[in-house]
Design a protein that fits this description.
mainly alpha, globular, 0% strand, 78% helix
Length: 266
């Protein structure tokens, strides 16, 4: 049970940070900590993640509707088109994070959610993003992505289980290092987020099977709507942003955030 202001702020934080290279999990941990709020609980976490899932599926609905027929066609012997290969790539890239999530979830929850861990990963992976962005060749498009690259980016996504890493940030970092354009890196990163957000929500729903407390359905619905609207807007603006410029503003934000956290919590 959380109040309306907390619902609004946390839903907007989730929606605005899920797909930017700044780590939504870090912000969802830090905002309540800094404001002295009680933990929002796993029920609310599921709601706002559902909102971001709705947003990314809605934004990439054309890509998804083009990929799925070719994917099922590849299963029935109709050949491996570029769209089918991309669908397989999203599936293959999800495996490392899915396995690590199942095996390491409890350890991460118990040991890696502290502000100082978040400060460290925020700075370290921010600098890695800067290096990748400044040295990227930016010559490959998403149709040129190979099986090895799907696996490598999928393994990078598993690192994002550590709060402060940023799922979108680390996957785009690896894609840039492999020579992909910023648009291709972001597009694959966002498509790759669909199954992992869905799987993580299902994992939390498993924990919810033991939940016996009251449920504020109005607050949950508000959280879904706000996080979905914020995430959809964020994806749309980010895809336009990277057509014109680089990742510097996000790196600067990460460095400032990390420095602030060290100052407050050291």
């Amino acid at each position: 049970m959380i109040d309306t202001l907390q619902v609004i702020i946390l839903a907007l934080v989730q929606g605005l940070t899920e797909f930017l290279p700044v780590s939504s999990s870090a912000h969802l941990i830090l905002v309540p900590t800094l404001l002295g709020w009680p933990d929002q609980g796993i029920v609310f976490d599921v709601a706002v993640h559902l909102g971001t899932l709705i947003a990314v599926v809605g934004y990439f609905r054309k890509d998804i509707t083009e990929m799925m027929p070719d994917f099922f066609g590849s299963l029935t012997g109709k050949g491996m088109t570029d769209k089918a290969k991309l669908a397989w790539g999203v599936g293959i890239g999800t495996i490392p994070a899915g396995l690590c999530g199942l095996l390491a979830k409890d350890f991460i929850e118990a040991n890696l959610r502290s502000p100082l861990v978040i400060a460290t990963t925020t700075i370290v992976f921010g600098l890695l993003l800067l290096f990748a962005d400044r040295t990227a060749k930016l010559v490959r498009n998403i149709d040129q992505m190979g099986w090895g690259h799907y696996i490598a980016i999928g393994c990078a996504q598993a690192l994002a289980l550590i709060p402060g890493t940023s799922r979108s940030g680390i996957t785009m970092t690896f894609a840039l290092m492999m020579g992909y354009t910023r648009d291709a890196a972001a597009r694959f990163s966002f498509l790759l987020s669909i199954p992992i957000i869905a799987l993580s929500s299902l994992l939390v729903l498993k924990d919810l099977s033991e939940h016996t407390g009251p449920v504020d359905w109005q607050a949950l619905l508000l959280g879904v709507v706000l996080s979905a609207a914020a995430a959809f807007t964020c994806i749309m603006l980010f895809m336009k942003w990277i057509q014109r410029t680089d990742m510097s503003v996000f790196v600067i934000y990460r460095l400032l955030l990390g420095a602030f956290l060290f100052y407050v919590f050291w």
